[in-house]
Specification:
By secondary structure, this protein is mainly α. It has 13 helices and two strands, in the order αββαααααααααααα. The protein has helices at about 1-35, 55-60, 65-95, 100-110, 115-125, 130-140, 155-175, 180-190, 195-220, 225-230, 240-250, 255-275, 280-285, and strands at about 40, 45-50.
Length: about 290
Amino acid sequence: MGIEARERRQPWILLAPALTSVTLLLFVPLAFIVVYSFWLRTATGADQVGFYLDNWQEALGDPFYRDILFSTLRIAAITTVVCAVMGYPAAYFIARSRGNKAILLLMLMLPFWISYIIRTMSWINILGVSGALNWLLQTLGIINEPIQMLYNETTVILGLVHFLLPFMILNVYVALEGIDISLEDAACSLGSTRWQSFLEVTLPLSLPGLAAGGLLCFVLSAGTYITPLVLGGPRDAMFANLVFEAVITQLNWPLGSALSLMLLAILGGLVLIYNHFLGMGQLMKGLG
């Protein structure tokens, strides 16, 4: 009996360090944020301890926050679609390449070796008034004076696509790698063209990877604040920028906590929907 009890405890003993880390670094801070969201910031700047719904009423009822939330979800959706359109052909090319997959995957992973902030700020040197693109257009005589291409929604989406495209490619690549290429050959032998075999065999089988990449791109783009802060204008703030503004600039932790929990609930709901229909296995493959 003692041996059986020890065997039952062994998995929990092995999981104890990871569970402890997740509890202390994730669940405990999240519990503090939930508690903070019901406190009240007074006119003197101090936080009044208690159970107040003022922050939630402001976050849910103010059209200003609602409009920026919808704008954030719209930008995240556009970014996801662009990543899917650009990422699928690249992933298909890598998956069907022969002999140089390792080199292509290495090139795909290279951006992860550079700081996200540096990659984002590099667009200023490319699209700025004195940037490389304006210099090239002026040198070719296409324009007479520099064009303002920064600090708008299009630039924000461009920066997000630059950041998230590798995640989409990796997830789709993992799904395509798991498809037996002989299935396409079998479809062709039965009279299908290459394009028909792709549409009827390869594409449906790779949809879980495409969905996993889409989920990652959507969640990460909706929760970012660096890209709109660096590349966007005053009207291009996303919801995470409101959280940053409330907590860091205004020092209004209760309101910032309520706003962050709103965004967490929406994105968490999307993850639960994805897990219900497709499961998290494909997502873990893409992240691995």
